[in-house]
UniProtKB/TrEMBL annotation:
It is an enzyme of class 3 (hydrolase). Its EC number is 3.5.1.28. The keyword Hydrolase applies. Residues 1-22 form the signal peptide. This is N-acetylmuramoyl-L-alanine amidase. GO terms for molecular function: N-acetylmuramoyl-L-alanine amidase activity. Residues 169-196 are annotated as: Disordered. SUPFAM superfamilies: Copper amine oxidase, domain N (SSF55383), Zn-dependent exopeptidases (SSF53187). The keyword Methyltransferase does not apply. Keywords: Hydrolase, Signal. InterPro entries: Cu_amine_oxidase-like_N, Mao_N_sf, MurNAc-LAA_cat, N-acetylmuramoyl_amidase_3. It comes from Peptoniphilus koenoeneniae. Residues 314-432 form the MurNAc-LAA domain.
Amino acid sequence: MKKIILTGFLLSALLLSGSVFAEEQISQVNINGKSIDVRNTNVKVDGKILKSDFSPYISSGRTFVPIRELVEGLGAEVKWDNLEKSALIKFEKKEIKLKIDSKVSYISGKKIILNESSIPKLAKYNEPKEETKTMVPLRFVSEALGYKVDWNSEENLAVITTEKAKDSDLITDDNSGTKENNSEKKSKKRKKDLSLVNNQYISNSEKKEMNNAKKSNRISAYKAAGLSEDEYNIDPGKRKITKTIKKEGPLTIVIDPGHGGKDPGANSSVISSINEKELTLKVAEKLYEKLQATDYEVLMTRNSDEYIKLLDRAQLSNENNSELFLSIHFNSSDENKSAKGIEVLYASEKNVIIKTAEQKHFAKCLLNSLIDITGSSSRGIKNRPDLIVLNKTKNVSALAELGFLSNSSDMDSIMNDEYLDLLAQGLFNGIQDYVNNYVE
């Protein structure tokens, strides 16, 4: 009798273990020349099993699916670039670009950094036949297209529903955030009054925003700048400050022409028709053209006479994970008409918790190159951790003051378009100098 009971128990155990192995079937794929054990899984789209000869699998906690089967199952299309080893997914007005073995991806032009475990791979299958498939992270692609993803652990099943996922429900494989740009509505009134702060002119619009930021909740200001909790809730003692920075894919730089729209910036006391916002845009456009000839990804906070809030400028930089941020300005002084020359401002990592790289080197590279090419007077580099575009950008950032609109000597140069070309070239040279020496 005992023997029968024991036999029955062993048989039940074997059957149970067999069902477990059926649910969690282990197979092997070859990735980058190495054979890797992966756990097979299934995917449902709107209640129907996704058809694929090659099983989706789980690796390092991420579900990977053959790209063509997934994309076509979601009603999108995909184009493969064999030279670049990249895939472009198109769906309605959205585009997703992924590259094999790269953490850098793009959603409608926005740069996203994937977690190490979510990097797309070429996986060679041996069953049901020998074939290499492009494997992409299911959750990232599905939610980037606007779909909702759930996980059924009992059935070892990823479930996709093609209803638009709400921003609050979106779970991404990166920390880019999903905040929309809440740019302030354009005001019909224009304020031309200026205030002197630390020997730099700050327009009333900027001063008001700086004061509001000081009064507002610290967390809300960081969130408005597109920063995640992990980025602004840092233990200062655990920060690792580096002299150099590492770029992920093409280097991304944000060019920020100061002021705009209702905020004209400084008005020249030498030539009253000249204001700062027009000059900053001219130099920014010239610099943009020069940078376009490189392999950098270049973004501008504005390309027209438009008012953009300071926090929105920082947000653009943070949410695109740019490596560099450069704000372009001109100076003015009603008190000292003899004040002239170029200076570059930065916010030291010692004063700004979200910075993890030394900031002064970028400012030095910019200043040295500007002085070399223009022959202008150097006013040095200055630590200005009070400025929003410097203290709310997590990357390496600088603000270049390219001359005094209140000084007749500086204005003689500034009114010459060839001199503006020199300023743009100087900024370009400074960027190149920094990249060559401080970017890995």
